[in-house]
Amino acid sequence: MIKAALFDLDGTLLNRDESVKTFVDKQYERLDKWLSHVPKDKYIARFIELDNQGYVWKDAVYQQLVDDFNITGITWEELLQDYISQFKNCCIPFPNLINMLGKLRSSNLVLGMITNGKGQFQMDNIRALGIENYFETILISEWEGMKKPDPQIFNKALDKLNVSSAEAIFIGDNPEKDVKAAQNAGMKGIWKRDDLGSDTVADFKVDDLEEIPLIIRELNNNSLSDLASKVLK
């Protein structure tokens, strides 16, 4: 029986690509006094390129932007601080996020989240989405001193939820750090499809969050059927 569902954040619950585009557009408008000499589309495109889907922290991104576009009058540190303080105002969820979490909770599942990233920054984004209270445990790599794909962070989450790995399912968008890592920890892995991992080996693949409660219900129905068959024998 599946008793717990654990989630990644960026690219799984948070539509990070759209959130980043929205943030950079607003940052350009907010700081146009220092950025207007750069065409907006070039500033946005270069930020997204340097960001590398979030795998490059923004200190390096802004240092390179300042150098590339000869930005003066504002430092890369000030641009970074603007990112840290303002990104939470641009968080865009994937469709059906709240509805999906509500269905899982109403099915008596316990919910957890494991996300790599900066502690307060990620928590600000979680709160901006309005989902913090759906989760019994939230582990953020900076605060935990370990990160995915380290199996220890998965095991810690399972311990906090008081479930075994066989009783849990993990949903994420990264084929290696989410799906494979969760499977290596003994969990079933659901891949939230993106454009980068068409050959991902997952137990299930979804395009929409609303598919997740259906998958878990089917798994649990099959488990009950198997149990009934064994009893009847």
UniProtKB/TrEMBL annotation:
Keywords: Hydrolase, Magnesium, Metal-binding. Its cofactor is Mg(2+). One of its GO terms (molecular function) is hydrolase activity. SUPFAM superfamilies: HAD-like. Pfam families: HAD_2 (PF13419). PROSITE patterns: COF_1 (PS01228). InterPro entries: HAD-like_hydrolase, HAD-like_sf, HAD-SF_hydro_IA, HAD_2, HAD_sf. This is Hydrolase of the HAD superfamily. It comes from Virgibacillus subterraneus. The lineage of its organism: Bacteria, Bacillati, Bacillota, Bacilli, Bacillales.
